[in-house]
Amino acid sequence: ELKVEQNPLFLSMQEGKNYTIYCNYSTTSDRLYWYRQDPGKSLESLFVLLSNGAVKQEGRLMASLDTKARLSTLHITAAVHDLSATYFCAASSRMNRDDKIIFGKGTRLHILP
Amino acid sequence: DAMVIQNPRYQVTQFGKPVTLSCSQTLNHNVMYWYQQKSSQAPKLLFHYYDKDFNNEADTPDNFQSRRPNTSFCFLDIRSPGLGDAAMYLCATSEGKWNEQFFGPGTRLTVL
Questions:
Q1: Considering chain A, what is the average pLDDT of its residues?
Q2: What residues of chain B lie within 8 A of the CB of A41, using their CB?
Q3: How does pLDDT run across B89-103, given as a tens digit for each residue?
Q4: Collapsing DSSP states into helix, strand and coil, what is residue B85?
Q5: What distance, in Å, lies between the first and last C-alpha atoms of chain B?
Q6: Cβ burial, residue B53 (10 Å; 0-12/13-18/19+)
Q7: Is B106 on the interface with A (CB under 8 A)?
Q8: How many CA atoms within 13 Å lie on the side-chain side of A99?
């Protein structure tokens, strides 16, 4: 059964600092997603990672995937207050019998001015 | 712009009074999903349609039903809402099962 774990679950950091959110998954996955959710809002797709070594960047956010380690990271560079949100990773695998997308619990990121 | 639309955005109902939430999409995606999300939790999948093929999650209460009359529309019916059903309900679509999902703005349900 595919399981997805994120850490940390809560992160408070100062503007200008760098930090990384980690997403581990338990079985073979062929796609990894990162979503952003602002309070009271819906989920916004940030990145789709489909292959080992995939790296995608958008502004101050960079996501990577290591399928051998079953690990994806979301790196924040020189954080700004606007990046405060909850970030979810999700994994899916068509190779699993229990074929579905599984979400992590989310990382609530608070960036202090 | 192609999008996923949910109506209403806010719904207040009374304990036990049936309610229907609607979702429509202009993306022409073949898969539509309904999620329930409670405060500070991850979205929880209730069911999904792959074209007309309905798939219910094992732990989705019988109180929750869904209809997909055509490709563009999907409805979530809650037959007898309880206080524990108060949540944000998110509709999502994808082209192909378990591919990148595009979420609607959500409907926040309050049960009095």
A1: 91
A2: 105-106
A3: 999 999 988 888 999
A4: helix
A5: 36
A6: exposed
A7: yes
A8: 10
